[in-house]
Fold this sequence. Notes:
Layout: H1 2-15, H2 21-35, E1 39-49, E2 56-61, E3 66-71, E4 88-98, E5 103-113, H3 117-132, E6 150-155, H4 160-172, E7 177-182, H5 190-202, E8 209-214, H6 228-235, E9 241-245, H7 253-257, E10 260-262, H8 265-272, H9 276-311, H10 315-357, H11 363-400, H12 403-408, E11 413-415, E12 433-438, E13 441-446, H13 453-458
Parallel strand pairs: 3-5, 6-7, 6-8, 8-9, 9-10
Antiparallel strand pairs: 1-2, 1-4, 2-3, 4-5, 11-12, 12-13
Helix pairs in contact: 4-8, 5-6, 10-11
Amino acid sequence: MLNLSIKFVLKEKSLVAVQTVSEYTSKLKLKIDKTMPSSWIKGEISNLALPASRHIYFVLKDEYSQIRCVFFRHKQSALSPKLTDGIEVDILAVPSLYGPKGELQLLVHTVRYSGQGELYKKFTQLKARLKDEGLFEKSLRKSIPIFPKLVALVTSEQGAAIKDVLATFRKRMPSIKLVVFPTKVQGEGAERDLLRALDRANNYGGVDAIIICRGGGSFEDLWCFNDEKLARAVSSCKIPTVTGIGHESDFTILDFVADFRAPTPTAAAVALAPDRVLLNDKLNRIRANLVRIFNREILGRMQAVDFISQRLRSPQDEIQKNREKLKVINRLILSQMINRIDSKKNLLSYISKIFKNQNSFSRGARDRLNELGGDFREAWLSSIRNRIDKLQRISDKFSALNISALFKRGFSIIQDEEGKILKSTSEVQKGKHVSLIFIDGTVRAKVEKIQAVSKIRDQ
């Protein structure tokens, strides 16, 4: 009986197809994905999770049931409401089975606050129409000023937004003047009030930028900032506009037409108020760099001047050096002449002695010898005078190179406005100023007429 029982069980097992859990959940997921369409579902959010991946996980529940939901990052948009635990929302989602855990979940396509369906529809319609008209084009955006002097605030006087904005300006750049144009930012008549405040700010003299701001709130609370007339007024505003409405996840029509959209009122103030501490640090770094560059440049120029000055010689020094050379040459010539004279004298003395010792030496020969001695003396004196005259002429030429001597002879130096020495009339321009440098000072003159040398000679 035991063997028969075993055979029977084995036979039954071979006839039935057994699936793994993964196979079964995969088929179930495929069937759900094919047969279940997307639907609008209403419920309360709980167990909200916001991981670093920026996918949003939460549980949607009502009084009797609950289901897990996942709102993937690529499905989210700037218009998606800010989700928190406890709020009621309407979601457009499709069911799906999460295989690894075998859990049914909803894949969310769209989220809106519960009951805002009509408002959201109006919002998307207006946004699409204004976009088609080109009001969202970046080419229409004006640049916000880097260092504004006067900023207008269009906001409520009682809200926390104005306190944050004022505190930010006081901390970052207290020198910026602020003028507040109070307005309602929520409820009935807020659109008209915002329009009037914006018009006053736009026509207020000297305003460099306008901030339109308010704190966070629900989609309905921020609805006044989706008004079409207000959006067109902001788009045509002649002064750069900055919006800081709600929180980072909140978007209104004004954010699309403003020149700059800040995620919060505080961020709007930061966009227009430079940080004075950072600016001072930056200016100090720039100043230090300029001083360092200036000092390096001055040092380099001084070294270049020293190098050039070592290679250049003063005309006075050069003349003095040549004079010393002339003195040495003069002494050398005189010494040579004296030596030659002494040698000739010795020779004459020797010849005289010879003739004195000879009785046949006649008076005529003595006279002739004396005549030759006189001629030699006269030739020697003439040679000395010629060499002295030559030395004087050389000395006069060196003296002519002396700038002081040139000035004393009536010459002057002419420079243009940049200090360049002018050597020809071709370098002079009519109507320009020149400087005439004399030995005792400088004269500044204006060129009224330029005349060529040929014309001067003709006159």
